[in-house]
Amino acid sequence: MRVKNMVLAALAGAAAFVAAPMAASAAQCGNNAAGFSAWVDDFQRQAAGQGVSASVLKKAFAGVQYNTATIRADRGQKSFKLSFEQFMQKRGGQAIISRGRSMKKSNAALFARIEQRYGVPAGPLLAIWGMETGFGGFLGKEHTLSAVATLAYDCRRSDFFTDQLYAALQLVGNGSLSPNARGAAHGEIGQTQFLPRNVVRYGVDGDGNGRIDLVGSKADALASTANFLRGHGWSRGGGYQPGETNFSALQGWNAASVYQRAIAHIGAQIDGQ
User: Fold this and answer.
1) Which keywords describe this protein according to UniProt (predicted)?
2) Is the residue at 38 inside a domain?
């Protein structure tokens, strides 16, 4: 799972409930499907009390169900325990490097614009894009709102994902997230797999069409990823290998050390470092 992850006035102004996620922590969490329906009802009452409109709640929860695939994925993240060499082999590191070099050439103007604005070179962005979704080839198949709601209900990280659920409701409310959207098992959205709160915080319009679409626009997805890294301390011109200035920004992208090292290594190979 990628715990990662729209600094837009329109979003901030549209959702008075964005700062109120912890209030729903009073809803009773659970570790199986038995109490999920009751939890959803309780959460919706509390969300309404925090200013979430009835229409948003109705749309957002219309198709929500307890997602066993999400729980299975949450409990089975074994690849992060592999050695670096094993992880690279499992994730197809060499294939990502090879294709990443080609993608860098074919999207040179886009990566130049992103680096000029955010200070982040192509390599780590391509490494993330390649490892997360195969350069946009597979975004996931789980119902996003079901995944986030399931993890908000689940006792293991209820507070964290309750906040993600409030962010998802904000995105539904402003039209940025379809209630029918599908993505990765933990509710990640788009070509580089942002959790809902990170879409709210770091999503940007990279292609200049006036909207943020992390699913359909590679420019939006990559610019948002660069904005995320900058928001986690990326310094223009600094190195990003372990021990260098910008490695801590990669640590912000994913908590698993083997994943961080893979981003750094793949990125350096693409950038020719």
Assistant:
1) Signal
2) no
Q: Are 25 and 42 in contact (CB under 8 A)?
A: no
Domain contains 87? yes
CATH number of the domain enclosing 207: 1.10.530.10
Secondary structure class of 218 (helix, strand, coil): helix
Q: Where are the alpha helices (DSSP H) in 180-217?
A: 196-202
The packing angle between helices 144-153 and 36-49, to 10°, is 100
Both tokens assigned to 224:
């948002």
pLDDT tens-digit readout, 93-117: 999 999 999 999 999 999 999 999 9
CA distances from residue 149 to 2, 89, 144, 188 in whole angstroms, order as listed: 17, 33, 9, 12
Of the listed ranges 17-31, 43-57, 216-230, the one predicted with least confidence: 17-31
Q: Find tokens 């082999």 and name the residue.
A: 89
Kindly give, in sequence order, each residue whose CB lies less than 8 Å from that of residue 161, ignoring residues fewer than 6 positions away: 148, 151, 152, 154, 187
155 is a domain residue: no
State which residues form the domain around 94: 75-139+202-271
C-alpha closest to that of 227 among 153, 125, 149, 146:
125
Q: How many residues does the chain have?
A: 273
Q: How many structural domains comprise the chain?
A: 1
Per the model's pLDDT, the better-predicted residue between 2 and 154 turns out to be 154
**61 falls within a domain:** no
Give me the sign of the Cα torsion angle 158, 163, 166, 172: negative
Q: How far is CA 260 from the centre of its chain?
A: 15
**Mean pLDDT of the residues in the chain:** 90
d(CA 199, CA 203): 5
